[in-house]
Amino acid sequence: MRFTRLLAVSLALVMAASGCTSEPTLDKAAAELQKDTQRLEVDSIFNNPLKKLRILQRPDKDIRCGKDKFNRALRATADYERVDEPLDVHLDQAQTLMENTLAQVLGYKLEFDFSQTETKEGRFIYGTKIDPDVKVTVYVAPEAPTWRLHAMTACLPR
């Protein structure tokens, strides 16, 4: 019995020391979103002037989303010029390129929606980071700008 109590107290202390019991804060999520902005700007694909990367909203301002809670947002566009190729091939390539960037460069876990694989009207890509909580949505459009990225932190206390 004494061993069980000692084990429970030890486990609680280890969890508290490692931060497992602490609530996430806006500062950590905002810092991650700012890193994503920088990674996107220096990425070998998106720093090419032909991609026309435009950061429309930087994640440097708090957005009120509840009582004493805030979030941050990143909005960006970029273009993937269509050459002499069918529209579905163009969308496939643009989608794959963005999925690779989100997963490999920015570290998002992607949600795959196989129902969009043949659509010519455009496609959505969804991704999430768990710690800190950041969600991204990218619309892959058949017209310029090809990529319309919107990433946002969870609604968190400061």
Explain briefly what this protein structure is.
The protein has 158 residues and is α+β, with helices and mostly antiparallel strands. It has three helices and eight strands. It has a six-stranded antiparallel beta sheet with strand order 1-4-8-7-6-5, covered by helices on one side. Strands 2-3 form a two-stranded antiparallel sheet.
Can you characterise this structure?
- The protein is of the alpha+beta class and 158 residues long.
- Helices cover 34% and strands 26% of the residues.
- It has three helices and eight strands; from the N terminus they run ααββββαββββ.
Outline the secondary-structure elements.
Blueprint: H1 2-18, H2 26-42, E1 54-57, E2 63-66, E3 69-71, E4 73-78, H3 87-105, E5 109-111, E6 123-129, E7 134-140, E8 147-153
Antiparallel strand pairs: 1-4, 2-3, 4-8, 5-6, 6-7, 7-8
Q: Main sheet?
A: 6 strands, antiparallel
Treating each run of at least 4 consecutive H or I residues as one helix, how many helices? 3
Average of the residue pLDDT scores: 87
Q: Kindly estimate the percentage of residues that lie in beta strands according to DSSP.
A: 25-35%
End-to-end gap: 41 Å
Q: What is the total tally of β strands? A: 8
The amount of helix comes to 25-40%
Show unreliable segments.
3-9, 11-21
Widest beta sheet: strand line-up: 1-4-8-7-6-5
Q: Tell me, briefly, the overall form.
A: elongated
Q: Specify Rg, calculated over alpha carbons.
A: 20 Å
Q: Helix and strand string, N-terminal first?
A: HHEEEEHEEEE
**What structural category do the secondary elements indicate?**
alpha+beta
